[in-house]
Amino acid sequence: MHHMRGVADEQIGVTVDCRSESHLIVAGLLDCRSQHHVIIDDPADTERWQRIASRECAVIAWPPRTPDQAMLRDVFEGLP
CA nearest 12: which of 73, 78, 53, 54? Predict the structure, then answer.
């Protein structure tokens, strides 16, 4: 991720449950000490960090998601 920017909730098209892997995500991020200041306020608060890493959201760039479409739960959902 190059720029961390917020988007409107309506633009989110994929929400992935990462709770079972959040401890691995945090362990990997802890190894990137030079990035701690841009990731979280208190790198020592790993419990909070795991809560933050428990869900990944993404915008579907194309085709645009319509309001009546269901939220995807996997980035590969619906692909042949």
Answer: 73
Sequence spans of domains, the chain: 1-18+55-80, 20-53
Three-class secondary structure of residue 72 per DSSP: strand
What's the start-to-end Cα distance of the chain, in Å? Answer: 27
Task: Write out residues in the chain with pLDDT < 50, as ranges.
Answer: 1
Four-CA torsion 27, 6, 58, 50, nearest 10 degrees: 20
Q: How far apart, in whole angstroms, are the C-alpha atoms of residue 6 and residue 29?
A: 20
Segment (H or E) for 59 = strand 55-59
pTM for this model (two decimals)? 0.69
